[in-house]
Amino acid sequence: xxxxxxxxxxxxxxxxxxxxxxxxxxxxxxxxxxxxxxxxxxxxxxxxxxxxxxxxxxxxxxxxxxxxxxxxxxxxxxxxxxxxxxxxxxxxxxxxxxxxxxxxxxxxxxxxxxxxxxxxxxxxxxxxxxxxxxxxxxxxxxxxxxxxxxxxxxxxxxxxxxxxxxxxxxxxxxxxxxxxxxxxxxxxxxxxxxxxxxxxxxxxxxxxxxxxxxxxxxxxxxxxxxxxxxxxxxxxxxxxxxxxxxxxxxxxxxxxxxxxxxxxxxxxxxxxxxxxxxxxxxxxxxxxxxxxxxxxxxxxxxxxxxxxxxxxxxxxxxxxxxxxxxxxxxxxxxxxxxxxxxxxxxxxxxxxxxxxxxxxxxxxxxxxxxxxxxxxxxxxxxxxxxxxxxxxxxxxxxxxxxxxxxxxxxxxxxxxxxxxxxxxxxxxxxxxxxxxxxxxxxxxxxxxxxxxxxxxxxxxxxxxxxxxxxxxxxxxxxxxxxxxxxxxxxxxxxxxxxxxxxxxxxxxxxxxxxxxxxxxxxxxxxxxxxxxxxxxxxxxxxxxxxxxxxxxxxxxxxxxxxxxxxxxxxxxxx
Length: 574
Hints:
Blueprint: E1 22-27, E2 32-36, H1 65-74, E3 81-90, E4 93-106, E5 109-123, H2 133-148, H3 153-168, E6 172-177, E7 184-186, E8 189-191, E9 203-205, H4 210-217, E10 222-226, E11 236-245, E12 248-257, H5 265-352, H6 359-391, E13 399-402, H7 403-420, E14 424-429, E15 437-440, H8 442-458, E16 464-472, E17 476-478, E18 481-483, E19 486-493, H9 515-521, H10 527-537, E20 542-545, E21 553-563, E22 572-573
Parallel strand pairs: 14-16
Antiparallel strand pairs: 1-2, 1-5, 3-4, 4-5, 6-8, 6-12, 7-9, 10-11, 11-12, 13-15, 14-22, 15-21, 16-19, 17-18, 19-21, 20-21
C-alpha cells in the first residue's frame, strides 16, 4: 500500500497563538462583561456576540462542568474556583482546557475574573483543526506567497509540506519531484510528527500505486482509503495531487490523515490550487537553477579559455626565448668553432709557406695546430652529443667501472691544466679495502668528470680544485634492479661562482648564464647540460651549489654502486 510505514499520531491542531488563554470578566450574576482570546482571529470567531450572555452558556450541556458552573452561579461565585477539566463551546469551535474563576472588585462593582487555559481545539463537527474557510484561504495565500518568494527548490519543497501539514493538520505530508517518463518518485521533503519514522529518500514505484498514476493523469486531487490493519478503525485517507506547469506534471504532493473524510470539497480545491502554484514555483526555480548552472559552466569555460590563452602566451614567450637562446648559442658557437679552425689553418699555413726558421719552431707550429684540432673536436663532440640527446638517439651501454681507474685518467688529463694555472689540485677517494666499482659507462663517466673539472679549472683563477667521492649505502632501484647504494662525486672549486638568480639557467640547453662570460672564457656552454643528461641516463642526479659570485662552486653527481666495498678507517688520496 502507499501508506508504507506511515504511522498516525494524534496531536493538538492548535497553534501557539490558539493555545493562548481565554480571558473573561463577569458581573455578580455571572453575565459576561468582556471576553477575549488571541486565537479567535485564527479560527475566524466573533466574541462580541457573547457579551451580556451567561457564562454558563459557553459550556456544552452534556459536559459535567455545566452543573458545577450552574451551582457556582447560584452562590454568585463567592469563592475562587478551579475546574481541571472543562470545555467551552464558541461556535464553530470547542475548546478543552482548565478553568479558573475568582472574585474581584472593580469600579463597576463586585464581579469575577476568569482564565481558561486552552489545551486543545476542535470544531463542532469533531474534525480536529478544521479552520473556517476564510482562515484556510488566508493561510493558503500565505503559503503561496512564501514559495513564490524563493528560487531555492529545497525551500519550496519544505515550505509546501510544512504549510499543508499546518493548514490541514495532516498526519504526514510528502513531496516528490517528477519528470515525465519516470517510473519512480523519491521523497525530498516531508512533514510528520517527531515520533514517526522518516521517509526522506524513500522511492515509490509508480506501477505499484494506482492512486499516484491517477493523480499524474488527472488535473484534480485524488483521495483513496486504505486499511493496512484488520480493523475498520485502522483505515486512513490518502490524498495525492500532481504539481503542474503548463499542464505538464513536475512533482507529486502526498498527504495522509487518520480519518475517513478529512478533506471537504473546499479543501480539495485549495490543495489543487496550491499544487498549481507549487508547480509554477518548481518550474521557475528549475529554470533559474539550470540558467545558473549554465552561467557557471560558461564562466568555467571562459576561465578555461583564459587559462589556455595564458598557456599559449607563455608557450609563445618560451618559444621566442628558446629561439633567442638558440640564436645566441649559434652565434657564440660559430665563434668558438672558428677560433680553433683559424688557429689550425694559420699554423699550417706558416709551415706550408716555409715561415718556420728551424725544425724546432716548425714542431711548435704543428703542436699548436694539433691542440687547436683537439679543441675543435671537443666542441664538435659537444654539439653532436646534445643533438643526439635532444633527438633521443643517445645509447649508453652500462657495466661495472672501477672508480680508481676512472679517477686516475681524470688526473692525467686535468692535473697539468690546474698546475699550469697555479692551482692546487686534490683527488679524494673513500677508504676501502677493495676497489670501488660503479655501474655506468666508462667513457661517458669520464666525459662528465672532465667536463665538470674543466669548468672548475677554467673559472678558477686562484685557490684549488678538488674531486671527491663518497659512498652512500642506501639501497636504490634502477632499471628494475636493486643496487646496494650510490657514489656521490663532487667537483669543488674556489672560482668565480654563480649568482643565485642565474643558477636556474645552468642546465638549460642552448642557455648560457652570461654571454659576455662565455665569450671571455670560451666554450659552447653545453657542458653542464650534456653532463646532466648523461648522468640521468645512468640513473644519477646532478646538483649545482654556489653561494654567489666570487664564492666558488660545487657540482655533484651520483652513480649507482655496483657492489658495496669493505670500508677502512684510512682515507685514500689519489
